[in-house]
């Protein structure tokens, strides 16, 4: 019998701006899911990262399952009611459609799912990022799966010798899912050429070439492609199975020590370092910096173990200091150049209006 892990995540309201969901909102969603999921799914875990609430659901219904997605959607609707009662900021902001239609893809919430036959031991990682977009995972997964400087298993573990298949999506294409499959190690230059553009090309999934098993699933939603305007950052989630013929947990975590600069931060319009944080961390400086949390689980017969918090370790305090320094350094230059996203990515309409107003004032000197 196959197990499916589904992470479904949404921002449905937060307290004091973009800081975190209110305690009451979190409990309402938790109680609803625990109640409604009994007998329907195997297990549920709920957590928050910044202003987002993520549900990790273990079940046997496969990916894009209507019942499972409806459970999450209804929980977010129930939470939105409470968010509105409390006057929370951005109540229901990621629920972009009125009626549920089969699954939550294209409706606002972020989704990452993998269906697999459980190994005798089945460790996996659940990542949730806030104040950034799905391309934030491009560099860490490239390094964790294709670069022996970060993944020593590519040299030391025979089961990884054959490499991995990357499925990469062109997220600027809105007519459907435009994807390409490329293999490591032979295609790494092509993979790098695509993944350098975090706003357009996003790793959707990775499969082992040793056994064909899916190792990674990333949510690829771009909210402004759905809503046609800025509604919030896409705040991606990711599932990564680890150990055995896959990278070790530490090999997947290692690239997050770079705190690479990603899109997001204040008003989803800036560049900031991705800071690895502990579970249930809030958002603060300049509505950021962009953050990522990681819960490490095992699943057995569909039951989730209580997770370990992968970034709750003294090493990551040092890394967080580095991220703070990098955040401060780029913030010193305010709106100038690389600190703010290019015009094509600026998600607030204000700048577009401003340019339209200024346009007729330009003169061409002869
Ligand atoms: Mg968010």
Describe the protein in words.
Helix content is 25%, strand content 25%. The protein is an alpha+beta fold. It has one domain. The strands form three sheets. Strands 5, 6, 7, 8, 9, 10, 13, 14, 15 and 16 form a ten-stranded mixed beta sheet that branches. A four-stranded antiparallel beta sheet has the order 2-3-1-4, covered by helices on one side. Strands 11-12 form a two-stranded antiparallel sheet. Strand 6 (164-170) and strand 7 (179-183) form a beta hairpin. Helix 1 (23-37) packs antiparallel against helix 2 and helix 3 packs antiparallel against helix 5 (188-195). The termini are far apart. Magnesium ion is lined by residues 11, 50-52, 130, 232-233, 235.
